[in-house]
Design a protein that fits this description.
Elements: E1 4-11, H1 15-27, E2 32-35, H2 44-47, H3 68-73, H4 83-96, E3 103-104, E4 109-115, E5 120-125, E6 130-138, E7 160-163, E8 178-182, H5 186-198, E9 201-206, E10 213-214, H6 222-230, H7 232-241, H8 260-273, H9 289-306, H10 310-316, E11 330-331, H11 334-337, E12 343-347, E13 353-356, E14 360-363, E15 367-369, E16 372-375, H12 384-388, E17 391-392, H13 399-402, E18 421-423, H14 436-456, E19 462-464, H15 466-481, H16 512-524, E20 530-532
Parallel strand pairs: 1-2, 1-6, 2-3, 4-17, 6-18, 7-16, 8-9, 8-16, 9-12, 10-11
Antiparallel strand pairs: 4-5, 5-6, 13-14, 14-15, 19-20
Length: 533
């Protein structure tokens, strides 16, 4: 079978894949192809269409900043964009640069193998096509591989079941249905209120209660839209200068530098403001346990005031982790949903799910008849999608085997033993701890600069070493250990939601500006830690 050859192949057509295509094709004039599993572009937003699905980053930050023209031409409609509007935006960008000409949809990569003799990657797809390329860039996203727990009897269930991360393109009608939702992370918190609006009855099965702050989503005013268009430079600077890549600055004040009365007033102010900004009310919320306790107590009080059913309120606020140290959700009427007559809450820590049968879910103490089950049970985050690509590097080294004890990368950009392959927002980079488009732009630009450097110097191969990846792994751990993040042992940041997955804190927690500076210093020092030939 003949191989179709390209300079570079990019896997995935979301924010990172589109920008990487633009940079390599239009700026470096390389012959490129994007291979995308879905039938449309959008990346994670192609698949995430569940009820209530929307971004938790404000729209004026969840955007590309590489082009002032795009920034000013596009106009978001809401404070937090919904999934359909994000797809519309990405299609607009794609059309603007004719990116679709070099994107191949409905193409699932099932293996990628490094050909050492010819210094090239060979990719095989589910359609039995073969591709050959010099550079392989994985732009597959961090939360793309869905995780449906292995619950006894699921295959016997007579009703329909769905995972929020692989939602049907035709909307699901819950009218007159008894719905069971398993999971109350970010997606579950978004989905439950919308499902409850039309379902005959909704039963939410909660294992771990999660903090959530009201999103305060709303249509954007004409004045705010004008403000955004007129302040491109300032907003671009803010997202690049703040640790999480958002368009708001974190306070320099420490929690206990402020008198209690003023502190409570600040918490109230940020609760009313809504969104992820609550994390930035004081500088030390994620690094100091006592400071975090102060914020957590406030949030617990606010949630208890909202939820009228005292038994439900107790279950929803029985927190076992510090605020903001798992992915911090924001919501629209999540806690208010438990005040509805057609909504019930089950604490599966005390009443665990035993099995699913033809007609519903059996817990230790109860039985719930259901027509539909919604799994809001998260993803095999950061590593799952990469491992599922079945990547084999030098000396027949398989990525799954190499990462058997946890991911090893250099800067989250390259993996030892896998030359000429770059991982956009890979494990070991800030990725999921940031506003993703900001982190993506930084990675794509760095990769483009590295490939440009290779072309200018007639290099054909770039690789890194095990030693460099281990050193970087230590820095990732040190950065995490300066925060409270690794204290949450059941967090997906450590892979704890996937049975038998190694427990390693995966993202770099030192902040995007610090990370960017490290990457720039390495680049300016002739790509220290990378070997070229």
């Amino acid at each position: 079978m003949s191989k179709i050859s390209y300079d570079a192949i990019i896997i995935g057509a979301g924010f990172s894949g589109l920008y990487q295509l633009y940079k390599l094709r239009d700026k470096l004039k390389l012959n490129c192809r994007v291979l995308e599993k879905g039938s449309g572009i959008g990346g994670t937003w192609y698949w995430n269409r569940y009820p209530g699905a929307r971004c938790d980053t404000e729209s004026h930050a969840y955007t590309y900043f590489f082009s002032e023209e795009i920034f000013k031409e596009w106009e978001w409609s809401e404070r937090y964009p919904g999934h359909a509007e994000i797809r519309k935006y990405l299609n607009y960008v794609s059309n603007k640069y004719s990116l679709k000409d070099d994107i191949q949809l409905d193409t699932e990569v099932i293996s990628a193998t490094f050909d050492e003799e010819n210094n090239s990657w060979i990719l095989k797809t589910k359609n039995d096509e073969l591709f050959k390329c010099k550079f392989l860039i994985t732009a597959v996203g961090c939360i793309s591989t869905t995780n449906i727990p292995n619950i006894k009897g699921l295959n016997k269930f007579n009703g329909d079941y769905y995972h929020t991360g692989n939602w049907p393109k035709n909307n699901v009608d819950f009218s007159g249905k008894r719905v069971g939702q398993i999971g109350t992370g970010s997606t579950g918190i978004q989905a439950a209120p919308v499902i409850a609006e039309t379902a005959k009855h909704l039963t939410v099965f909660q294992r771990t209660p999660n903090f959530s702050v009201p999103a305060r989503n709303k249509p954007l005013s004409k004045e705010f839209k004008e403000y955004v268009k007129n302040n491109y430079d300032e907003l671009k600077s803010i997202v690049k200068e703040t640790p999480n890549g958002h368009a708001f600055r974190i306070s320099e004040k420490l929690t206990f530098d402020v008198p209690q009365k003023e502190r409570e007033k600040k918490y109230e102010e940020y609760w009313e403001k809504g969104g992820l900004q609550f994390r930035g009310v004081f500088k030390d919320i994620i690094t100091d346990k006592k400071a975090n306790d102060s914020a957590s107590i406030f949030l617990k009080k606010k949630i208890s005031q909202v939820v009228k059913n005292k038994e439900f309120a107790k279950i929803l606020t029985n927190f076992d982790h510090p605020y903001g140290c798992k992915r911090p959700p924001i919501d629209t009427n999540y806690f208010e949903t438990y005040n509805k007559d057609n909504v019930h809450l089950v604490d599966i820590k005390n009443d665990p799910i035993i099995e699913i049968d033809k007609k519903g879910i059996k817990t230790k103490n109860n039985y719930f008849k259901l027509d539909t089950i919604v799994f809001a049970t998260g993803y095999d985050a950061m590593t799952g999608t990469l491992i599922n690509l079945n990547i084999t590097g030098e000396n027949n080294l398989n990525l799954k085997d190499y990462w058997n004890e946890g991911p090893k990368t250099y800067l989250g950009l390259q993996i030892p033993g896998f030359p000429n392959m770059f991982t956009i927002t890979g494990p070991g980079s800030p990725s999921v701890l940031t506003n993703m488009p900001t982190a993506i732009e930084q990675h794509v630009e760095w990769v483009t600069d590295c490939i440009s450097y290779m072309i200018e110097n007639n290099f054909n191969k770039v690789s890194t070493s095990e030693k460099n990846s281990l050193e970087w792994g230590k820095q990732v751990k040190e950065a995490a250990d300066k925060t409270l993040l690794p204290t949450v042992k059941h967090s997906w940041y450590l892979g704890a939601n996937i049975p038998n997955k190694p427990r390693v804190f995966m993202p770099y927690a030192g902040g995007l500006p610090t990370y960017t500076k490290i990457c720039e210093n390495i680049k300016n020092n002739n790509y220290e830690g990378f070997a070229f030939s």
